[in-house]
Amino acid sequence: MPLLNDQLNSFKARMRNAPVLGKRAVAPPPSPPKDDTNEAKRPKLNPVMSLAGTAGKHKNTQFVHAIEFLKKQEKPVSFEDLEGYLSSPVEPLIPLFERNPHLMVKNNTVTYISKLGVYSADDLLRYLHRMTTFQGVSVRELKDGWCGALPTIANLEKEQKIIVLRNRKDDSPRLVWPNKGGRIGNIEPRFVSLWQSARVPSASELPKNLEMVGLKPSSVDPTSIKREAKPAQEKKRKPRAPRSKITNTHMKGLLKDFS
């Protein structure tokens, strides 16, 4: 027992004299650093510049809307009416109006001038009869600035005053020409009598008539046509040249046959 007590006291003494270690504090993992590259890549917009760009886009948009509105009016439109349609002032658009060749600004009004200057049926007929070529007039150009182009073309076609070429897909008019040949569908009597007096040979006579004028009917098989055989010409044989070349020409006199 005394031995055990001595060992216990000795162990306690060593424990009291042992150095005391502090608790290790575990620090939380550091947060990832902020990516400054993304912020650097994003350009900081200048509020003044951004407003100017927006104003420019808005100005161009209003100009396009104004053009479409003027095309449908077919008459001069006052600045006041145009401002009422756009719900914005027209003053910034006036320089654009003056630079456009299809717009005419006069006395505080704007007028859209079509490409061909056609606005009625009479204008269209006069324009067609002034043409010096037969290439036709595009309906797309007629519709530019003339809303009544399609119904007017339909009426003039019904009256047979113009000739219309239509698209196959939707049967919409594509080109128009003036009808300078009179009423469509009528044939002069002299052409009718000429057609009736023309005699068409029968099927049996047709091959002979074609051969008389030097033509061949398409119904005849080309292999059945007998062609005249040309007399064979006799070919003349050319004298054969000696294959070997004589080199001992100095002995021609000795080798000559005197018999």
Automatic annotation (TrEMBL):
The keyword Transcription regulation applies. Residues 20-44, 215-259 are annotated as: Disordered. The keyword Ligase does not apply. It comes from the Eukaryota. It is found in: Nucleus. InterPro entries: TFA2_E-tether, TFA2_Winged_2, TFIIE-bsu, TFIIE_bsu_DNA-bd. Keywords: DNA-binding, Nucleus, Transcription, Transcription regulation. One of its GO terms (molecular function) is DNA binding. One of its GO terms (biological process) is transcription initiation at RNA polymerase II promoter. One of its GO terms (cellular component) is transcription factor TFIIE complex. Residues 44-119 form the TFIIE beta domain. Residues 33-42, 224-234 have a biased composition (Basic and acidic residues). Belongs to the TFIIE beta subunit family. Recruits TFIIH to the initiation complex and stimulates the RNA polymerase II C-terminal domain kinase and DNA-dependent ATPase activities of TFIIH. Both TFIIH and TFIIE are required for promoter clearance by RNA polymerase. Tetramer of two alpha and two beta chains. This is Transcription initiation factor IIE subunit beta. It comes from Starmerella bacillaris (Yeast). The lineage of its organism: Eukaryota, Fungi, Dikarya, Ascomycota, Saccharomycotina.
